[in-house]
C-alpha cells in the first residue's frame, strides 16, 4: 500500500501544467493558441481540485471541477465566436496586432 | 485463472469475433442491397460470394500505401488510426450475455463492466469525430475539408438528442453500468425499456435510433462523404489500409450503436418472453426451420452447385439447432443468441434504410436535429421524469 | 369554512384581468368584469353576514411572518362590526360601480379607472376583514395607494397630480403614527392579532395604552381627514366624482373610525385618549362645517361636509358610543355617497361645471337627480324619519351624557350642516339658471344607483345598528331623551329655514351679510388659511432646508466634491498608470502572473506561520 | 502499479502540454491539448473521480476541443506569424514563470509532505450518484445559475457570430 505516488506529485504536476499554460499565454501570438493555453490552465486547476477532493475524501472538489468545465465550455463558445468576429474584422489572429484598446 | 490471462483471452476472442463480424457485415450489406435492387451481389468468390470479404482484405493490404505530397503528414496518419481505435474501443464495455463458466472459471461475457459504462461509450464516441474532422483537414483538399467540417458539425449536433434520448431510459433503471441496465430489464418484452411501465420509451427509442444513424454517418445522414457533392468527402485522399481503417470504423460504429440500442431499449440478452413459456426452444426452432427450408430447396436446386451446398447448410443448421438443446451450453448460448438477434435486427434496419432512403440536404439535416429531435427528446425526458417522480 | 378570502379576491381578480388585458377589451366587457366581480363579492358578503351569529368567524390561511416568537398570519375574521363595514363597502361600492359605468362612459383610460376601482375594493375589503393590525395596515396603505392613483386619475391635469401627492404625503404622517402604534403593540403585547391584543389589554399600564391609543388616533386622523390632517380631503375632489363618493365619502375615509372602534378595548382602558378622540371629532365637525358654509364649488361643499360628518363619528366614538359612531358611519355612507353621486350627476349634466354660481333652476331640467339629492339633503339635515336623524341623534345623546357643552356645539353644527347643504340645494336647483351649458338628465345607469341610495337614505335609519352591535361593545347605551331629540331636530329645521330665507326668499341677503362681515368671511372663505399656514410652517422650511442643506451643502459640496475629487485624483494616477495599458494582452498577462506570485507568496507564508 | 500509471500519464500530459506551447501550428497544439486532457482523465480515474473523468472527455475532448478544431478549420488558421512582440512578456515572463513554478512546487511539498500516498480505489466518492446528490441538493443554486450562464453564452455566441455584426 505504500507504492502510491504522494499527493504532492499530483499538485506539482498540476503546477507544471498550469505553468506551461501560462507560458503558452505569454510566449505565443496566435489568439487560438492563447485560448488553448487558458484551457490548459483550467485543466491543471481541475487536477488540483480532484486531488484535494481525494485527500479530503469529499466530493466537493469534483463539483468545483465540474463547474469549471461548464464555465470553460461556455467560455469556449463565446470566446471562439469573438475570435471569429475579430478575424472577420481585422483578418488576423495575431494578438499583438489587436491592440487598439490602449491609452 | 490469472485475471490478466483471462482478460487477454477474452479480449482476443472478442476482437476476433468483432473483426470477422465487421468483415462479413459488409458482405451482408452488399448482398441485402443487391437483393433490394434486384441484383445478385457478390457471387464469384466462394459460394454466394462468401469469401469476398477475405479477398477485399487481401486487396486492401497489398495495395500501394500512397501519401499525397501536400498533406500534413502526422495528422494525416493519425486520423484513420484515431477513427478506428475509438470505434473499436467501445466494444469493451458491451455485455453480450450472462455469466458463463469455462474450465472452472466463471466470467461474464463482457470485457469489463464500468460503473460509468454508458458515459464511457459516449465519451469514446464523442472522440470519434476527430478521426473524420482531422482526416478532412489534413488532406489539404477542399472536398475533404468540407466533409470534415460537415461531419464535426453534424456529430456535435446529433450528440445532444442522442444523450438526452439515453437519459430517459436511465431514469427507469437508475444505473450507468450497462450490465445492470440489462439486468434491470429482466422478464418478458413488457419489461424492456421500450415498453416498460410506467413510462414506455418508444419515442426515446426512435430518437436514439435516428441520432445513432447520424452519429455513424450512415444514409440518410451520410453528408460527410456525399459522393455526388464531395467526391468521397473526408476520405478522398486515403487509400489502401488507411481507407480500410475508415471503413472498419464506420462498421464498428454501426455495431456499437446496434448493441447500445439492444441494451438500452430492447433488454440486451433477455429473451422475448419468459423461459417458463418455452423461450429456450426458440433458437432451436428457428435453426431447424431454416435448415429444413435449406434442405427442401436443395432437393429442388436452382443451380447445379446448390445440390450439394444447400443440403450441407441445412444439416449444419439442424446441428446448430441441436446444440442449443444441450443443457451444458444452453445457459451460455441462449443469451448470446438473443443479444445477437436484437443487434442483428438493428443492423439489418441500417442496411434496409440505406437501400431505401435518399440523402438529406444539409440545412434539413441541421433543422431536423435542432428543431425536431432535440425538443422531442427533451419533452420525452421531461415527461418520463415526471412520471417516474410521480409513481 | 366560509371562504372569506373570496370577498376581496373577486375584485382583485377583476383588477388583474382589467388591468392586464383591459386595453384590448370592449367597454362592455370591462364593465361586466368590474361590476360583476364587486356584485358577486357583495352577494358573498351578504351570505356570510346572514350566517353570522354572536361568535366571530375566523379563518387562517397561511403564516405570513414567522420571526422567533413573533408571528403574523394571513387571517381574516368576520364579526358584527366587520359585517356592517362589509355590507356598506360592497353594497355602496356596487352601486357606485354601476354609476361609474355611466359617468365615465366618455373618458379615456376607461379600463384603468375600473381596474383601480377594483383594486381599491380589494384593499378596502382586506382592511375590513383583517384579523390583525398588520394585515389591516396592508389594506390601509393599499387604499391610500388607490386613493392616490384615483385622485390623480386625470394625470395630465397638474392640479390633480398635486392633489394626489398631497393626499399621499399628508397620509404619510398618519401612517407614521399608525406604524409607531403597531411597533408599540408588538413590544408590549408580542403580537398584532386583534383577539390576543385585546385580551391582554387589561393588565397593561395606562400610560402605555394611552400612547398606543394616541398614536393610533394620529393614524385615524390622517386617513379619516380629522384636524389637523384633514387638508388633503377637499383637494382630493380633483378625482372623478364616483371616486369622491366611494373613497372620499363612503368607505376609505371611514377606515379611521372603523379602526378606532375596532381598537375599542384599548381606548376603554385609556380614557384620556378617548377624550382626545371626542375633542378632535367635535372640533373638526364644527370647524369644517363653518368652512362649508361659504364654498362655491359643489364638490368642495360636500367635501367639507364629509370632514364635518367624520368629526361627528369621532365625537360619537370618543364619547363612548361606538355603536352610534358606526351607525352614523353607515347612514353617512348612504347619504353622502348619494350627495356626491348626485353632484356628479349635476356636473355630468352640465358637462363638467362645478361652480354653484353658474347653476340654478335645474329642478325641472334634471328631476331624477333633484329628487334623489333632496332625499340625501333631508337625511343629512337630521329630519326624522330619514336615515341621518337616527344616527346623528344617537351621537348627540351620547355627547350630552358625556358633557352637555359638547351636545350644544354638536347641535349648532347640525344646524350649520342643514344650512350649507340646503344652501347648495337652493343654489343648484332653484332660482334662475345662470349657466351656459344645456343641462341633460343622466342615463338610467346613473339614476338607478341614485334611486337605490335615495331609498337607503330614507329607510336606512331603520337598520338599527346599535341593537345589532349591542353585545359587541360592552358600553352602556345612553337613554333616549325626547327633549334633546326635539332640540336637534329644531336646529336642523332652523338651518333649512335660514337657507331658504337667505337664498330663496331674499336673494342678495347672503351677499350683504358676507360684505358686512368682511374679515370673518374672508377668513372662513379661505378655509382659515390652514393650507397657507402649513405651507409656511412645514412645506417652505422643508423645501428651503432641502435646497440649502441637502442640495447646496450635502449634494453639491460633499458628494460632488468627493466624486470630483476622486475623479481628479484618479486622473492624476491614471496619467502615470496608463503606461501599463499598452494594449498588448500578453504584457497584461505578465502582470497578472506577477500579482499571483505575490499572492501565492503571501498565502504560503501565512500558511507556513500557522 | 499506481506510481507507474501516474508516471506514464503524467509524462504524457507534460509532453503534450509542452507540445501545446511549442508547436507553431494551431492544429498540432489542439491535438496535443486533447492528449493532455485524455491523460488527465486517466489521472482523475486514479484519484477515484470516475464520473469526472468521463465528463472531462465528453465535455473537453468531445465538445470544447471539437469546437476549437472546427474554428481552426473554418478560419484556415496557418502557422503563427513572426510579427509583433511584447517586451514585458519577453523580458519578465520566463523569470516569473520559474518563480511561480518553484513556489507552487515548494508549497505543495511543504504542506503535503510525502506520507499521503494516492491509491487507486481508496476513494470511491466520485460516482455519478455522489456527484448527482451533491449537485442537486447542496449545490443546487450554483447549478441553476450555471444553466443561466450557458443560456447567456449560447445567445452571446449566436449574436457574435452573426454575419451582419
Summed over residues and divided by their number, the pLDDT of chain D gives a mean of 81
Amount of helix of chain B: 55-70%
Largest interface: A-D, 76 and 86 residues
Number of DSSP strand runs of chain D = 0
Number of separate helices of chain D: 6
Q: State the end-to-end CA separation of chain B.
A: 46 Å
Topology (elements, then pairings):
The complex is a heterotetramer of chains A (103), B (391), C (610) and D (165).
Chain B: H1 3-36, H2 52-62, H3 73-89, E1 99-102, E2 105-108, H4 117-138, H5 142-173, H6 178-183, H7 202-215, H8 227-230, H9 240-264, H10 282-299, H11 306-323, H12 327-356, H13 362-390
Antiparallel strand pairs in B: 1-2
Helix pairs in contact in B: 1-2, 1-9, 1-12, 2-9, 3-4, 3-9, 4-5, 5-7, 5-13, 7-9, 7-13, 9-12, 10-11
Chain C: H1 6-21, H2 27-50, E1 57-67, E2 70-78, H3 80-103, H4 110-129, H5 133-151, H6 158-189, H7 194-200, H8 206-223, H9 232-235, H10 241-250, H11 255-262, H12 264-268, H13 271-292, H14 298-318, H15 322-349, H16 367-381, H17 387-402, H18 404-429, H19 444-459, H20 465-468, H21 482-505, H22 509-516, H23 518-525, H24 530-577, H25 585-609
Antiparallel strand pairs in C: 1-2
Chain D: H1 2-22, H2 26-46, H3 50-75, H4 87-111, H5 128-136, H6 140-161
Task: Please provide a brief summary of the model.
The complex is a heterotetramer of chains A (103), B (391), C (610) and D (165). With 103 residues, chain A is mainly alpha-helical. Chain A is 76% helix and 0% strand.
Word description of this protein:
The complex is a heterotetramer of chains A (103), B (391), C (610) and D (165). Chain A is an all-alpha fold and 103 residues long. Chain A has a domain of 63 residues: Orthogonal Bundle (Helix Hairpins), CATH 1.10.287.3510. Helices cover 76% and strands 0% of the residues of chain A. Chain C is mainly α and 610 residues long. Chain C contains 25 helices and 2 strands. In chain C, strand 1 and strand 2 form a beta hairpin. In chain D, 75% of the residues lie in helices and 0% in strands. The longest helix of chain D has 26 residues. The relative contact order of chain D is 0.09. Chains in contact: A-C, A-D, B-D, C-D. Chains A and D meet through helix 1, helix 2 and helix 3 of A and helix 1, helix 2, helix 3, helix 4 and helix 5 of D.
